[in-house]
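User: Teach me something about this protein's shape.
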Amino acid sequence: MNWFFLTLGYSGLAPKAPGTVGTLLSLPLGMLILIYFDTNTLFLATVLITLIAIKAINKYEEASKTHDSQNIVIDELVGMWLALSIAPAVGVTMNEVTQLENGFLIQSLLAFVLFRYFDITKPSIIGRIDREAKGGVGVMGDDIIAGVAAGISTAALWQGYLYLQSLV
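Assistant: First, the predicted structure itself:
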C-alpha cells in the first residue's frame, strides 16, 4: 500500500518522465473533485495527503537510504492540487467544463503547464527547499511551493486576460 500511495498508483514507475506522468494523472482527478465538490474539499484533501505523504516518505527514506526517489510522485499530486485549489476559482458542472468562457479548462491546463515549469526549473526558494530540506518535508516542500506559485500565476494571468478583454 505504501509504495502504491507514494507512486500514485504506480504511475511513478513510468520509464520516462514519471513526474509528468504523475502530474498528468493528478490533473483530471483534481478537476473532478472541483466539479463534483468544491475548492475547499480539494484543498483539505491536499493537506491530508501531504501530512500522510511526509510520514510515508520519511519511512521509505529510512528503509531505502534514498532521498527523493524519482518514482515518488505523490508530491506532484499535492503540487498540482494546490495549483488547482488557487486557480481556477470557478465552480462548474460537468457540462460546463468545455465552455471556454468560464475559464475552468484553460486555467486548469495553464496551472498544469506552470506547475511543471516551476517544478522542473526550481527557481528561487523552490530550488533551495529541494536542495536543503531533508526527508518528507524536502520531497514535498518544493512541490508545495511550486503548486502555490503555479496557482497564483495562473490566477494572475487569467485576471489579466479578463481585464484586457474588458478594455476591448
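Now, about its shape. Residues 135-167 form the longest helix (33 residues). The chain has a mean pLDDT of 94. If you'd like, I can walk through any region in more detail.
User: That's plenty for now, thanks!
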